[in-house]
Amino acid sequence: MKVVALVGSIRKDSYNRKLAEYVKNKYKEQMDVEILNLRDIPFYDQDIENDPPAPVKELRQKVAAADAVLWVTPEYNYSIPGVLKNVIDWLSRGDRVINGKPSFIMGASMGLLGTVRAQQHLRDILFSPGVNSPLLPGNEVYVGVVHEKMDENGNIKDESTVIFLESVIANFVKWFNQQAAAMAVK
Predict the structure, then answer these.
(1) Theoretical Cys-Cys bridge with 108: which of 15, 49, 135, 154, CB 3.0 to 4.6 Å?
(2) Residue 41 DSSP class
C-alpha cells in the first residue's frame, strides 16, 4: 500500500515529522510511506487553482497516486496548523484528488492530551463534502508527552505507545484491504 504522509509542522526537528519517519521506517513491510515536503506549497489561491504552481501540481500528483493519506498534525491554538489547512484547500479544489482517499491521523505534542483537539478539527474537515476522506473510526494516535516517549533519534521508547501504534497500523491495513476488496467486487 502506497501512503503519503502530510505533516503539519515544517520545523526541522518537529516531533510530528519524527513520528511520521518512525512510522515510515518501522512499518515499511506493511506500507510504503512517502513524507511529502509541504514547505514550498504556496497559499491557496482560487484564481490559480486550475493552473497551480509546480509544487502544488506535484503534491496533487503524489496524493492522487497514493492509496491512502497519513495526516500527522501538531496542535496549534487548539486546532490544526495553517500548513495542513492550506494543503487540504489545494487538494480539495480543482480535480479534488483527496476526495474519497482513505486517511488516518496521528499527532504528537509535549502536552498530556497529545493533539486531541487538532485531530477533532481535522476529522471535521476531512468529512466535509469537498474532501470526503474516509477514516477508520477510533484509530487515531495521540502521542502526549512525546519528549519523554521518543529518543533523540526519533525512536519511540515507550512500550505502550509502540504496542498501540502496532495495533493502529494493523487495523488500518486490514480496513484498507477490506475497502479495496469491496471496491473490486463492484
Answers:
(1) 15
(2) P
Any idea which residue has 503519503 for its cell? 4
Q: Is 101 left (phi over 0), alpha (psi -120 to 50) or beta?
A: beta
DSSP annotation of 100:
T
Edge to edge, the sheet with strand 68-72 lists 32-35, 2-7, 68-72, 103-108, 141-143
Helical segments of 2-126, H only: 15-26, 54-65, 82-91, 116-126
- Confirm if 109 and 74 have CB atoms less than 8 A apart: yes
87's CB contacts (< 8 A; 6+ apart) are 6, 38, 41, 59
Cβ-defined contacts of 165-168 (< 8 Å, 24+): 165/23, 165/26, 165/141, 168/104, 168/106, 168/139, 168/140, 168/141
Cα–Cα distance, 85 to 77 (Å, whole number)? 14
Distance of CA 89 to the CA centre of its chain: 15
DSSP summary character for residue 143: E
Which secondary structure element, helix H or strand E, spans residue 5, and what is its range?
strand 2-7
Report CA Rg, the chain: 16
Could you identify the residue written with the cell 484498507?
176
Predicted local distance difference test score (pLDDT) of residue 186: 65
Q: pLDDT tens across 130-159, in order?
A: 899 998 877 889 999 999 999 999 999 999
